[in-house]
Amino acid sequence: NTLIKEENIVEFIFENIFLPFEDDTNDGYVVFKIKTLANLTEGSMIRNKAGIYFDYNFPVITNVAESTFSDPSNADVDGDGLVGSEDCDDFNPYVNSLQEEIAYNGLDDDCDPSTLDDDLDQDGYGIDEDCDDTDNTVNPGTEEIPNNGIDEDCDGYDLISSNANLPSLEIDCFPNPAANNVWISTDEPIKLRIVNSLGELIKSKDLRKGSTEIDLSEMTSGIYFFIGESNGHKSWHKRMIIQK
Predict the structure, then answer these.
(1) pLDDT score for 163
(2) Is 92 exposed, middle or buried (0-12, 13-18, 19+ CB in 10 A)?
(3) What is the 3-state secondary structure (H, E, C) of 75-144?
(4) Which of 39, 152, 170, 194 could link 203 by a cystine bridge, Cβ 3.0 to 4.6 Å?
């Protein structure tokens, strides 16, 4: 319950909470918001304290807290020496107009929306999908051009012939997303290769016909491409997401 007494005293009453005696487990706090008076000016200081009552014992009086009112646009909470439009995150001293933008960290480091954090080539695909974020002609939405040494569609490899001339394998791969293992079911023996979004080979394994469990416990979270090839020159590939 909350009570207001004498116009400037507020009571927060907690009944039947049965706090334990151990100091490590009996802490608590109160969060509240008060509308300020209209005549307060920048630099005004408000002092306050609280009395904490346990049952019918004498209160425990807190220290005196001091709050100084200031114009938020002139505040420098993070102490980086910059305020207002020059500091778009005043709780992070490493985010302000003097910083250099760091790509893919989820922050507007230099407080300049024109310096991009992701999708640097502006093709509509972020780094989690785009295997070359410096070339807007390379992304999962682009049609693969065979035999040019470029992985245009970001499936992990460059085609060696057109899709029309390359028969496909019948393969099931699940679950997707996966964590520590996947199951691959194939109707004939295949050579399985797992590559990351940079085209680097992570794992290679010969699979027999049927279902096989693939251990992914040593692989980190990210986007990978599973590529299967048979002796009959059939191919298969699948984009897989690993989430730890």
Answers:
(1) 44
(2) middle
(3) CCCCCCCCCHHHCCCCCCCCCCCCCCCCCCCCCCCCCCCCCCCCCCCCCCCCCCCCCCCCCCCCCCCCCC
(4) 194
95-148 pLDDT, tens digit each: 999 999 998 888 999 999 999 999 999 999 988 889 899 999 999 999 887 767
Q: How confident is the model at residue 58 (pLDDT cuts 50, 70, 90)?
A: very high
Cβ atoms 205, 214 nearer than 8 A: yes
* C-alpha distances in Å from residue 228, one per residue of 4, 121, 204: 72, 30, 10
pLDDT, tens digit, 9 for 90 and up, residues 166-201: 456 788 999 999 999 999 999 889 999 999 888 788
Rounded-to-10 torsion of CA 228, 229, 230, 231: -160
